[in-house]
Amino acid sequence: MHSVINNIVKSTEKRIQRIENEADPEENGSIRTEKRDIVKAITDKKSQNKVAVIAEVKPASPGKKLRDIMPDDAVMIAKEMEKAGAIAISVLTEPEFFHGSLNNLEAVRKEVSLPVLRKDFIINKVQFNEIESDLILLIAGILRDNLDEMVNLAIAKGFEPLVEVHNQNELEEALKTKARLIGINNRNLSTLEIDLDTTLKLAPIIKEYDINNNLHHTIISESGMHNIEDIKMVIEAGADAVLVGTSIIKSGDIYAKTKELVDALD
Ligand SMILES: O=C(O)c1ccccc1NCC(=O)[C@H](O)[C@H](O)COP(=O)(O)O
């Protein structure tokens, strides 16, 4: 793992200590009452020959500030994304390296009707009790042997787990779990380099696995997409949806950039 990721995990462990000190770990919160179905949203979007875009409310990435985003701004950004045809909103909640917040997520989920993904470094089950979201990110390369258990706990808590992988080993572990959504992260968490070929390499492996086992996973290509060509490339490789943060947030026109990506197949 890159030293940045090690630092993020250490910082997350400190956050977890605070949660454990403050909350009842057996608290039964986070059971969804209202389901926002991302799989249906993706299927519907694809049937219109549009791109299923999960647009990310991302204030920063390690060492890079993108835009100050407080709850009111997060809501305004998410509404622009929704209006432009995004099928879901991803909200960063990691505070130290991504300047995200639980308040941003809570405000967005209240004000938009799309499924909302909690984008964070989830390494302990107590984090499931922190806040409601429709989807939750689980990173195979960080959770390793705990992946299967965390997927099961997330499902039991009412979350739709998005299991993120970057290489074939992680993918094989992800496919052993009950997760319906596999995120292929084009960003290598050991080097932080981005290579869209990651999706080109891994998506066909998922497709073949599904054919052989009569299953259907939803494939989400994540990170490093900036333009129509990037989107077309990963969709052609078999991605059902794309997750885009930086290029939308930095564009200066959230609505226009999101729409450009949604309409990439026109
Ligand atoms: O965004 C980063 O630089 C980053 C660094 C270390 C770990 C994770 C990181 N990103 C998390 C993400 O998954 C992205 O925010 C998401 O896929 C959107 O990517 P992008 O469109 O490249 O902002």
UniProtKB/TrEMBL annotation:
Pathway: Amino-acid biosynthesis; L-tryptophan biosynthesis; L-tryptophan from chorismate: step 4/5. It holds the Pfam family IGPS. Its EC number is 4.1.1.48. It is an enzyme of class 4 (lyase). GO terms for molecular function: indole-3-glycerol-phosphate synthase activity; phosphoribosylanthranilate isomerase activity. InterPro entries: Aldolase_TIM, Indole-3-glycerol_P_synth, Indole-3-glycerol_P_synth_dom, RibuloseP-bd_barrel. Residues 7-261 form the Indole-3-glycerol phosphate synthase domain. GO terms for biological process: L-tryptophan biosynthetic process. Coiled coil: none annotated. Keywords: Amino-acid biosynthesis, Aromatic amino acid biosynthesis, Decarboxylase, Lyase, Tryptophan biosynthesis. It catalyses: 1-(2-carboxyphenylamino)-1-deoxy-D-ribulose 5-phosphate + H(+) = (1S,2R)-1-C-(indol-3-yl)glycerol 3-phosphate + CO2 + H2O. This is indole-3-glycerol-phosphate synthase. It comes from Methanolobus mangrovi. The lineage of its organism: Archaea, Methanobacteriati, Methanobacteriota, Stenosarchaea group, Methanomicrobia.
